[in-house]
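Exam revision sheet. Question 4 asks you to relate a sequence to its structure. Input first:
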Amino acid sequence: MNEAFGNSPISSPADIKRGQDRDSLFLKAILRFPSTDAEGEVRIRNLSAGGLMAEAPVRVARGEKVEVNLRNIGWIGGSVAWVTEGRIGIAFDHPIDPKAARKPAADTHAHVPHYLKKLDEVAKVKTDPSKLRRV
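Answer key, structure tokens:
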């Protein structure tokens, strides 16, 4: 972590992962520690195919295994790459598609209870003049 900035050559697979494009964003996710089953909400600040940076009020050791539940992606395994005051870097075990996490949540209408779906259908009929009946 105390390495000087410079034009040093890429020397390890971790350095190659670090060079990937990152998307700056604000996304909530669940962070879980498989060794203790402890979990909590974190705020993802940037995301790439190989890892993420999150705001997380946790004390963990570098190299500790973690899992992150990202919207539209699901649970991703990884390990702690670095930790600093209130932030944590996680390197994923396998690459992901970071753009999938930016997409709106999957079809939420499928999870709406049947009685609310009926109300939604009635509202659609009321807004379509061809479906109105004459009195």
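Marking note for examiners. Confidence is low (pLDDT under 50) at residues 1-19.
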